Each structure stands twice: as C-alpha cells, then as structure tokens.
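In this notation, each integer encodes one residue's backbone shape. One such record reads:

___
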Amino acid sequence: MTMKKMTRRGQSAGGLLSFGLEIGILAIGIGIISTVLVGVQSTQTSDSTAYNNTASAVTAMGTYSSWYSTLILIGIAVVVIGLLFVLKRFGGGGA
C-alpha cells in the first residue's frame, strides 16, 4: 500500500467535495437511525429495561441532531472554499 504525498496546497478539490458529501450522508444516517429507534421503542413495554435502553439511545441520537446546522454549515463552507481555490488555480477569478 502506498500513501500519497501531501502537497503544499493540502487537500484537493475532490477531497473537499467528498467531505461535504460525507457530512450530508452522516446527517441522513442519524435521521434514519433516530426514526428506527423511536419505532422500536413504541413497541416496547414502558419502564422495561429494553424501553429505557432505547430511550437512552434516542436521547443520544438527539444530541447528534442538535449539531446538524453546524455540520451542514461547515460542509458548505468547505465546498465553497475548495471551489474558490480551484477557480483561482485555473485563472477563473475567485479569492
């Protein structure tokens, strides 16, 4: 296995765009998992061990979902900055 040498410029535009896509997939995955957990919890007996464990998992997933807006904002910023550097490199203006 060979590792690519990092250039002085850092990440490529393709790497930055894939990072933005990964953040979007993460947000969708958290939403799907939360929906499944709530569905499972609704079939369990209240105050049972399984119900309480599922409630803890739902709460934990809710903690992640409170970071959605921050993650999406970072993802968009990374993509925009990456595109500006690509435009600058090809002489199309930019930053």
